[in-house]
Amino acid sequence: MALITITEGYGGNGKEIARQVAKTLGWTLVDDPALREKIVAKGFSPDEVDRFDEKTPGFFELFFHTRPHVFVKVLESVVYDTARSGEAVIVGHGSQVLLQDFDCAFHVRLFESETRRAAALAKKSGMDPDAARRLIRQGDRDRAGFLKFAYRIDWEDPGLYDLVIHLNKLDGKAAAELIVAAARAESMQECSLGALEAMEKLELEKRVRAALIERQIDPAHILIEIPEKGRVHLAGVVTNAEDRQRVVEAARAVAGVKELSSRIEVVRGGD
After folding, report:
1. Per-residue confidence (pLDDT) for residue 54, from 0 to 100
2. Which secondary-structure segment (H or E) carries 235?
């Protein structure tokens, strides 16, 4: 079992290349519709997904609402849940960051010039070429901004990727064949049982963290540990006994939490 993540600029041909790779390998394709369906199932409306998905939250939205932060944690939980379920080709959504520490994940960056992507978009949609170029630029800014907001990384950092393919020189078919060849290489590592268990723990940890944020609880001072499947241990500090109770109740209500222990201390105020 192994994983491939594919990252591309807005308006590129990455989704079709990912589809070809998944079909050839017989792996699951996890693209925008698949991730969207999973996120909606976890309580986000389709409109919210459209508003938050790979976009930079506005200042006032960040200042007055927790939903962008909750969305990131839910997205992370969905990526980990998908990754541990089997061999998959995952398109975008920070998967190259979330799975960076797993040796069984192979990260691909597809690069295609803005000019080529804009021309292809204009031809496909009948859009004015200048309008297509502006849309491409905005899409790239949104994706870069989302990754900077969510993970404080520059998506153009070559250190995030194991393979960079320039589609200005290789067509989609050749790019797909190159990725498939890499996936079939003897040196490609399969996900160990330990790695799959780690993903499962991360998936639950992200859902617990999302639950805290959704209840207006700042998780910055809360340590969430998953020693084994279904077991959650909380530690940290809060300013009053009511917040301590809210943290425990929020975590206990998360699906999949079977056993909960807490060593959260009140550092100001009283019981």
Report:
1. 67
2. strand 231-238
Q: Averaged over 192-202, what is the pLDDT?
A: 92
Q: Whole-number mean pLDDT of the chain?
A: 89
The span from the CA of 69 to the CA of 75, in Å, is: 10
Q: What is the DSSP letter of 269?
A: S
> Residue 211 pLDDT more than 60?
yes
pLDDT number for residue 65: 54
* Both structure tokens of 89: 């080709």
Range 194-266 classified under CATH 3.30.1340.30: yes
Give domain limits for the chain: 3-183, 194-266
* Per-residue pLDDT tens digits for 109-128: 999 999 999 999 999 889 99
pLDDT in the model for residue 193: 85
CATH topology for the 3-183 domain:
Rossmann fold (3.40.50)
Reduced 3-state DSSP string for the chain: CCEEEEEECCCCCHHHHHHHHHHHHCCEEECHHHHHHHHHHCCCCHHHHHHHCCCCCCHHHHHHCCHHHHHHHHHHHHHHHHHHCCCEEEECCCHHHHCCCCCCEEEEEEECCHHHHHHHHHHHHCCCHHHHHHHHHHHHHHHHHHHHHHHCCCCCCHHHCCEEEECCCCCHHHHHHHHHHHHCCCCCCCCCHHHHHHHHHHHHHHHHHHHHHHCCCCHHHEEEEEEECCEEEEEEEECCHHHHHHHHHHHHCCCCCCEEEEEEEECCCCC
**Is the pLDDT reported for residue 232 higher than 50?**
yes
